[in-house]
Inverse folding.
């Protein structure tokens, strides 16, 4: 989502989750908000975002509750 969506997410559920962003702008916003684990593609777009989601999911511990 957008940087504003990241702010809402951070306000409502905190920043301890792993996040997968659609591009660098959203990823930069997530890092600035304090999200510790941020994934994003080199080029924004749905295909790259899907790859970032797979990478983020693979980074979670077995049983991943992050």
């Amino acid at each position: 989502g957008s940087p504003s969506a990241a702010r809402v997410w951070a306000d409502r559920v905190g920043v301890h989750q792993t996040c997968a962003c659609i591009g660098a702008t959203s990823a930069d916003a997530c890092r600035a908000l304090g999200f510790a684990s941020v994934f994003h593609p080199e080029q924004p777009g749905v295909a790259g975002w899907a790859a970032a989601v797979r990478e983020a999911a693979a980074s979670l511990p077995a049983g991943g509750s992050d």
